[in-house]
Automatic annotation (TrEMBL):
Family matches, as InterPro entries: Homeodomain-like_sf (IPR009057), HTH-type_TetR-like_transc_reg (IPR050109), HTH_TetR (IPR001647), Tet_transcr_reg_TetR-rel_C_sf (IPR036271), TetR_C (IPR011075)
Domain of life per record: Bacteria
Keywords carried by this UniProt record: DNA-binding, Transcription, Transcription regulation
Record's protein name: TetR/AcrR family transcriptional regulator
DNA-binding listed as a keyword: yes
GO MF terms, alphabetically ordered: DNA-binding transcription factor activity; transcription cis-regulatory region binding
Domain HTH tetR-type: 17-77
Taxonomic lineage: Bacteria, Bacillati, Actinomycetota, Actinomycetes, Kitasatosporales
DNA-binding region coordinates: 40-59
Amino acid sequence: MTERPRPGSARPGGRTARTRAAVLAAALDELDEVGFAALTLDRLAARSGVHVSTIRRRWRSVEGVVVDLMAQHSATIPTPDSGEFRQDLYELAEAIAGFHALPRSRNLVEAMVAAAAYDPHIAELVRGAFMARTDVVTQIVHRAVERSEVPPDTDAYEVIAALSAPFYYRLLILRRDIDERLVRTSAEAAYRAACGGVFGGGE
């Protein structure tokens, strides 16, 4: 039996790429207009012009489409390379704040978390999307190690998690806006902890 591809993992180019672009654009517009709770495969099909059976075959569910959309949009957050660790962390924090300042980005994150809460398959896709993005931005920490700005055993993933977590706590738990103070304190806290060896890999 042929294994079903992961949502959004079909080969790129041509008709496949056009189908993905149309469905993801439709999902983003629907999240803006009606929110995740009202999002259905039929609505996506009507807005995108892609047959519902095609959407179901490729993404399996509305949740699969949302996870693919989140992966696409989070990839637009740049990875800073200023040559200085503290500045890189600050610029990354600013980019995260800018991304989540958009109402549609908030809708997207909330939809993704809601979907993952009750579906183990979607939860695994969400973890994969976040880990893939984290893999990219850990370059900031690896470069800092090479410049001897942080200890050589610094856990790059933990540094990025410490920087990012306050944003999701603010958005999803406190339900408040992200401001410049949060950008500054998140970046500075991660910087000082990393330089102080808090994220070392030892016992």
